[in-house]
Amino acid sequence: MDISNFDLKDLVQDDSISLNQKMDILHNVIEEAKRQKLYLYFRTTNGPSEDHIQATSLETGKPRDMIMMASNNYLGFTTNPEIKRRAIEIIEKWGIGMAGPCSLNGNTVLHQELEEKLARFKHCEAAMIFPSGYSANIGVITALLGKDDFFIGDELNHGSLIDGARYSRAERLVFKHSDCEDLERCLAKCEGKPGQKFVAVDGVYSMDGEIAPLRRIVDLCKKYNAMLLVDDAHGTGAVGANGRGSLEHCGVEGEVDIVMATFSKAFGCFGGFIAGSRQLITWLRFFGRSGMYTASVSPVIVGACLAGLEMMQNHPELIRKVQENARYVRSRLTQMGYKTSNHETAIIPVFLNDRMKTYSIVKEAYERGLFLSLIEYPAVPHGTERIRMTVMATHSREDLDKALDLLCELGKKYGAI
Description:
With 417 residues, the chain is α/β, with parallel strands linked by helices. 44% of the residues lie in helices and 15% in strands.
């Protein structure tokens, strides 16, 4: 089977075959890719996701040490000794789960303490924990909007924001990426009409590391009396002088109605939260269905996140280090001739815009000890394929140089630079 020209988009949009036939085709393509040792997703790892990782070679089937530059563990918290110690203590005292929702089973003092501290960290009045960042966005959007309302989103918004808008049944308007003139066009289109006007953007866009122009967006939302949600999943802990995220970076803390962030990035854990006014959080506790109708985040997760939040606030040198590492990697990639972004985040895209070059570099890098992310459709449009690199505070300069030297060699080999 020739899989080199397989097009997932064509398969999904093919109305001439049934869903079962589509699933069968996709399954066969993936199995053939595995047989040819070309399948670069769901790679097998044999240890924690830290700056060095044990991962299984596609060619030999044996584990080997690799430099990890595909993880969102920006501050290295997944294996931080103090955070692990605190998590173990929480398990001993609280067990491994809540076995039900906080609304019925009780909201522990741990959960309450984390929500209070998260609210202060985000310069908000209150916060509510959700099982994931995805469920947090779904929960808040569907709790606030209905069929008579307006959802206005950036064209590159995260899938959770897009899905939340769909589930809410609100009228959806999309503006060009980070184009505030087009955002104003959408807001003006809704002006004078009944219903809530609701704008949602990523604070940091996950595929290219770009920070949204929040100052201008906040001002437009105030002008048109629209509610604003900022998804700060990738900003929290890694952006801003104190790691408070894209709002701190843009100078708009305390001016955004709803802030979402996750525990799966800089916290190195799992879960998410919404921060905002006390009235908003009270409303979500009763109408945020993705939080109401699922078990509460386990005490061990809450304890680890409490420890992580304290670590962020007490060790600003970690935040400075991840930002320093990102600047260094961007600078060297640019010097090599790679096209990358120029934003102050830990996400560093390497734009190749060619599927085969991207595949070739990521595959050979992996086999030679460098773990990178391959980004293609449906994550990004055809023709915009890229390597997505992420840096950690725990990456040494030696690690970064080794990774960059290999990328320079492979870029020349495959005609990318």
